[in-house]
Amino acid sequence: MTSGDGRPHVVIIGGGFAGLYLAKGLRRAPVRITLVDRRNHHLFQPMLYQVATAALSPQDIATPIRAILRRQRNVEVQMADVARVDPATRTVHATNGQSLTYDYCVIATGARHSYFGRDDWEPHAPGLKAIEDALEVRRRVLLAFEKAEREPDPVKRHQYLTFVVIGGGPTGVEMAGAIAELRRYALARDFRHIDPREATVLLLEGGPRILTSYPEELSTRAKADLRSLGVDVRENTLVTNITAGWVEAAGWTIPTATVVWAAGNQASPLVATLGAPLDRQGRALVEPDCTIPGHPECFVLGDAAAFMHQADRTGPLPGTCPVAIQMGGYTARAIAADLAKKPRTPFRYWDKGQLAVIGRGHAVADIWRFHFAGFLAWWVWAVVHIAFLVNFRNRLMVLIEWGWSYVRYAPGARLITGETGEFAARHAHRSP
Known about the structure:
Distance between the termini: 42 Å
CATH topology of the domain at 119-263: FAD/NAD(P)-binding domain
Structural class: alpha/beta
Oligomer: single chain
Number of helices: 11
CATH architecture of the domain at 119-263: 3-Layer(bba) Sandwich
Number of strands: 25
Strand order of the largest sheet: 5-2-1-9-21-20
């Protein structure tokens, strides 16, 4: 898998923001780059909830990695699942039996949702980290309305029309607001026997307030905006059990057929194969130059890294796109400095602020010393997120979809895909 032409070989594991910005940052460097990802596309994760609530289609927020890097001649893309990395021999081992030797290795594999030791909850409460997750959530949400439409029992109908989002961070807040808008506007006139506007949307947060990384006044504003959309926000409500059809939280049993998990993250298991010290979320505790101790050629970036060296912060840097993008760009400069025989400078994250959307025309913004909410924050959020999309087609399509949705209250991707219970039963009956 290597050409052996004498140039230093950089292996990038992960085609997310950190991996892509690193590869692009090395486009003029005298190196060979192999970018390995288990999927063939780059995904803009912050907008997955828009796919999950039928506002956008998957292709609007995903682009093939090969298409992004096709013009960069020093990059080779490999679709493979990496099993382990051996820093001692500088070798990357894939599950298909192939291996890559490297001069520099970069692990930028992101994170998955964590259920805090209760992995049995995952089948009942999917998270949002991949397109498959978003499509499954969309299927469950839309199917719940379909089942309620033909359910004569009011108790069961109420269960179908109760949606529970667990976790009051940005993903949970955005997801709860999007479901509330879906049932209030887009689906309001589509059914004959139920009124979708009567559906219940619950947002459960185990801590004292939602959006804990934001100033308290913005958390309060977000809570008020969610309640104006009809979302029942419950803080200090720790979930203790999730089973088929039920959620138990703070001594309260909630009948529901649709649960979305947005409460925790855990680094990719690949990070543990490095032999580096890890934090509680399985992230590698990296050095000031984003490398693991004792291996200056092995970088860990983005959600996979616990960077603790920012003097103006307590705790690690957040697992956000801006952090991953800046780490990717920094690593490209660090490798270029090595090639020029110059010393590396420590990585420093420039915090440009944070944004969270609540619904149509409602968002909260924490940008430097400015804290504001409402339509202006929503407009800034929309501009920033469209700008981060990878290519022009994605930006144009999202702009068109959002414009149409904003004017007509009509998301266009309300398709139920996958095997419903009835389809699966018929398919099983025909199978030998």
